Amino acid sequence: MTETDHPDSVPPEVAAETEAAAPEATPPETDGPGEVLISVADLTKHYGAIRAVDGISFQVRRGDVLGFLGPNGAGKTTAMKMITGFLEPDRGSIEVAGIDVAADRLAVSRRIGYLPEDAPAYGEMAVEAFLRFIAEARELEAADEAIETVLETAHLRSVRGQTIETLSKGYKRRVGLAQALIHDPDVLILDEPTDGLDPNQKAVVQDLISSLSANRCIVLSTHILDEAERVCNRAVILSEGRILVDSTPEALVARAPGHNAVRFRVTEGDAADVAATLSAADWCAGARVLPGGEVEAEPRDGQNRLNDVLAAVGEHRVADVRVREGRLDELFRDVTRGVAA
Amino acid sequence: MSGLARRFTGMRAVLRREFHGYFASPLGYIFIVIFLIASGYLMVSRDFGRFLELREANLDALFSYLPWIFVVLVPAVAMRLWAEERRSGTVELLLTLPITLEGSYLGKFLAGWAFLAVSVLLTWPAVFQVARLGDPDWGAIFASYVATLLAAAVLLAIGLLFSALSKNQVVAFILAVAASVGFLLIGVPQTQEFVGKWFGGYVERVVSSLSLLDHFETLTRGLLQLNSLLFFVLFTVGWLVCGMLVLGQTKTN
Predict the structure, then answer these.
(1) For the domain bounded by A3-255, which CATH number is listed?
(2) Nearest to B252 by CA among B103, B94, B121, B133
(3) Number of Cβ pairs < 8 A linking chain A and chain B
């Protein structure tokens, strides 16, 4: 069972959005009424007996940064390859900027900037020569100008004459982004844009992506959940080729196990007593004494129950009281494990 | 844009990139040097061309050995073209640009062919010497260059197919050499005798009409016969179309 089928356990606004992931439903409203730039319906792809993508449907609007999250082999890359027209779907339809990919891949490719996994590029070419080739292939009128602009945007000025194979991973990734941006596309498809980069390089690429999001739609895949929180305003969790969750990163955090759990230290009195009292409360999903001696009480409904906790503590003295945020990776593990089990 | 032009969208950009690519690495220069040494050696060697001994003002000594040099060198020109794209993953980049599979395929073919043409035209000192020493048949020399370029085209199309088939350049090279040798061996007298003996005169005539060497020789004699020209064009187009079909299957692996 996917969670998409059971939105009753989630907050109302999340439920509304997860329902929207069903094929015939309207897409989730996100920031602003941007036009729909990607529309995918019932997309399916098999590799032999393996179902890589299994009937997924979603829409992405201008201004959206949609993160595809999911374990390896979840179908993220396959879905992206079909959106760009590199792979043909077995079933289903894809429209980019209103153009059917199956009917006119060339027209679609002019609207899309695509960074394939591992940012492949012609290693023997210099950065500028490579971008010139891309500009020529895209038949850009003002190629020189476009090249200068992306060299600036992707911070590649200093290495413009260097051959790509001699660059560090971070630079190579930015070369990949530069070629995807050279024609100022409406739609950006980025397959694991920060995978394999060190933390500093990651931050640079993430900032770059954030700066690009204003007037386009971006679809990126990642298995780094912090990244989804940092750059995406919408997160889709894929597993075994299906969409399990389609929501915002914030809403996902709120759904994560342990969201709004209250933690504190008991300074006067018995921690086990306090935990037992809290466990008995009907709003409480459970309270326990952690190995460090602290008590943690988890609310049943994910709401902030700090006042209830303090009331229940009674005459015991407590210190270091804090409310914990849910963690996306815990939700991710819960959700994706549910499918595997 | 007409339908046909649209089908080959992006060809020019690929052609230019690939052609420059030959001169961006040592491969192109190494190829040219080896080609010129080999063709020069076979031309003047006492065991092969005997150009100096024959004392004739023609270039048969040069041209008649070129197909055999091509059998090894043309696959070397072709092997990189698709195998490298598929190994490094750039094929995905290439085929998601506004470039069609046919356009990129033909662009790579034309780039390789242009490079081979440059190499072949660098044999001009031989022409210069013949003109200096005697009064050659210019028609035959022109026809011989045409024949050479056509033979290069067929063998390049074979090499390109195997490059699309295997991600491994060495494998692509070996398979292409084997296929090219097979293609040439159809035309040697021993094969034709053998076929004639076992399958009769009709089959022998069919096989001999498929002989690259025979058609090549016809052209180098200065006879630009239509059936010989068609032979090269049809086989080149045939191998190219097969290669495109193969690449359509292998591009995503």
Answers:
(1) 3.40.50.300
(2) B94
(3) 61
All structural domains of chain B with their residue ranges: 3-250
CA distances from B220 to A202, A321, B62, B190 (A): 62, 95, 11, 22
Q: What CATH number has the domain spanning A262-324?
A: 3.30.70
Closest chain A residue to the Cα of B25, Cα to Cα: A124
Left (φ > 0), alpha (ψ -120 to 50) or beta: where does A266 sit? beta
- Structure token pair of residue A118: 């591992």
Nearest to A137 among B10, B88, B251 (CB): B10
Q: Cβ of B99: how many Cβ atoms within 10 Å?
A: 24
Give me the pLDDT at residue A104, please: 93
A-chain CB neighbours of B87 within 8 Å are: none
Whole-prediction pTM: 0.85
B104-160 tens-digit pLDDT: 999 999 999 999 999 999 999 988 988 888 888 888 999 999 999 999 999 999 999
Residues of B with CB under 8 A from a CB of A: 6, 9-10, 12-14, 16-17, 21, 24-25, 88-90, 92-93, 95-100, 251-252
In chain A, what are the domain boundaries? Answer: 3-255, 262-324
